[in-house]
Each structure stands twice: as structure tokens, then as C-alpha cells.
Amino acid sequence: MLDVVGRLRGLRDRERAFRARQRERVEESRRRPLADLGGERGGDDEQLTHSLLADTLPRQDTEPTTAEPDGRGARRAFGQAGRPLNRQSPFYVGFVGAIGVLAAYALWQAVSSLGTVLTLLTVAFFLTLSLNPVVELLVRRGLRRGGAVAAVFALAVGAFVLLGFVVVPPVTQQAGELAQSAPGYLNDVLSNPRVQDIDQHYHVVDKIQEEVDKRLTDSDFMSQVAGGVLGAGRIVAEGVFSALTVLVLTLYFLSSLPTLKQAAYAVVPASRRPRVISLSEEIMRRVGSYAIGQVAVAAVNAFCAWIMMSIVGIPYAAVLAVAVGFLGLVPMVGATLGAVLVAVVALFDDPTKAVIALIYFIVYQQTENYLVAPRIMQRTVSVPGAVTIVAALIGGTLLGMLGALLAIPAAAGLLLLYDEVLVPRQRRV
After folding, report:
1. Using one digit for the tens of pLDDT, what is the confidence trace for 370-420?
2. CB 293 within 8 A of CB 381
3. How many other β-carbons are positioned within 10 Å of the β-carbon of residue 13?
């Protein structure tokens, strides 16, 4: 009896030991792929473990086992993984480079298509910085920013209305006089003895009359004229729309400039923010001072031109003075354009007056370019005279009148960065 009990206890102990080994193998199988166990051929314990694992682990009938970190599960489920792509391969480098070139070209085309919009934004922002010193002055005097902006715009509109009263009535009156006097001018030209002598030999008047009649009866020519008129009307409409757009953008930028600056400064890291704010505020101050200085230069140009035309007796003196003032806003070339305009008008009245006007503008332009404008710009934007001239030449060459207008404030900003950032950093190196 005792022998039977001992045997039963022995069987129970062996069963417990077998179950313990079974649990150990199950735990090990969770950490090791089942494929590693598939090739092992041991005793009964191994075969029983395989059968138990087949019952306890999820079957692979429908879904492959997720790949283990060492990749052996991936080899069993999806096959052998290949070598990584060689990033030094000429094909890889060429393909990635071609994609980069295409992306850069697409970005360039997008920016080119937005050229007009970017120009309007640039002009509006420049006008905003130009008017902002006046707004800040009114704010310091106690006005709210909205009221200061409204006052500045009212002053600007009033100035343009005043210029309109100065320009429009004389132009309208003198244009009517010119239309009434045009037949008399034509008869005087035709009755001139030299013109009659040339007409007798070459029949110039008859040929001109024949050519005019031919053009008037030509449908293609009339359609071209109509197309030209429509094109001119479209250009005028686009100009009016652009002017209104710039006006609205300037009003918006001017009223919300502190908010825009705060949003832009928030992007800068906090450790560099005070430095960036001080430099940015100084650059914007210089841009505004430059605009005020350029207006002063143009006003001096217009006033001196009006005095000269009044003394010489050139017609339309007030109208031409206003035109010379507006053209004088463009640095370097503005005085030249104003001189050409005045000389052309004076030529129709008296060639001697045209010669006098050209001599005056040549002398004045040299004085303005090398004495007046550099000194005003040096006091307002702290830019040396040589840098002013070189910047205006480069800006005019690259972007025309807009580039010449923005070149000097851009040079002022770059010069500030040179003095405050680059030079001190080079000293510390």
C-alpha cells in the first residue's frame, strides 16, 4: 500500500515538473519565433510543447505575424528584405536633384505670377512706413491711433484735392484753347513759304491727304485704332484699380501696424527678441525719414522749377511744376524726366525758352544729385552720399523706378545691420 502511494506521489511530482517546464517553454516561445522551435526534435516534452503552442498561440491562416525587431518574423511572413537604397548612387542623386529643380521652378513661376500683387504690397508697405512717423506724432499728442490715421488720410486727400484745383482748371482751359487754335496752327504751317515750296516740288500735302483718306477707309487700321483705344482704356482702368488697392492696403497696414509688428516679433526667439525689435524699429524709422526727405527734395525741385518757368515765361508753369514735383520723388532720374517734359512744352512756345530750361535743369540736377539729396539723406536716414548714389543706380537698373525709389531705404537697413551686427561680431572673433 505504501509502495502504491509512493508511486502516485512520484507521478504527481513528475507531472508538476512537466507542467512547470511546459510553462517555461510557453513563456520562452513568446519571446522567440515559432520557427526556431520547429527544427528542434527532442523527446516527448518537446513534441508536447509544440502541440500545446499550436493550440495556445494565434493561427497564421489569414494574417501574418507582425515582424519582430530582429526581422526574422518579417522573413517568414514577407520574404527576405533587400539591401537599403544607396543614397550615394548617381541615379538617386540625379533623381532627387531633378525633383528639387522642378520644385524650385514651380516656386519661381508662382512668385512670377504674383509679381503685380507683390509690387502693390511693397508700395503699400512703403507708404505705410512713410506715413507712420506722422501718425506716431499725433498719437504722442494724445490722439488715438484710429483718429490719427483718419487725420493723416484726410490731410493726404486734402493735398491731392488742392493739387487737383491747381492742375485741372488750367489744363482744361488750355486744352480747349489748343483745340480751338489747332486749325489756325495748321493754316499757318501750310501757308509757310518753305512748306509751300516743298509741296510744289514733292506734293507732300497731297500725299499726306491721300494717306489719311486711305487709313480712314481701311477697316484693319480702324480696328487697330479701336483696339489701341480699348487697350489704353484697360491700362487706365488697371491703374485706377491698382491705386485704390494700394490706398486700401495702406489704410489697413497703417491702422494695424502695431498688431502686425507684434505678430512678427512673436516669431523671433525670446532670447533674441529685444535685439531684433530695436533693429527693426530703427530700420522702419529710417524708411519713414527717407520718405519725408524725398518729399522735401521733390518740393524744392518743384518750387525752383516754378520760379524758373515764371521768370522765363514758359506756359503752364503751375501744372508743369506739379508734374516736376511728382517726378522728383524718383531719385536720380526724376529731375531728368521733369526737365524733358518742361523742355518739350517750352519748345512748342519758343525754342529759346526750351534751351534755357534745359540749361537750368542740367545745373539743378547736378546740384540736387551731388549736394542737396545726399545731405538730406545723410541727415534723415544716415546714409553717406556715395552710398545713396550707388544704391539708386543699382535699384533703378534692377527694378526700374520702383527699385530706385526703394533702393535708398534698403541701403539704410543694410548699412544698419552692417554697423550693428556684422562689425561687432567680427570684432569678437
Report:
1. 777 777 766 666 666 677 777 777 877 777 767 777 777 788 788 888 888
2. yes
3. 10
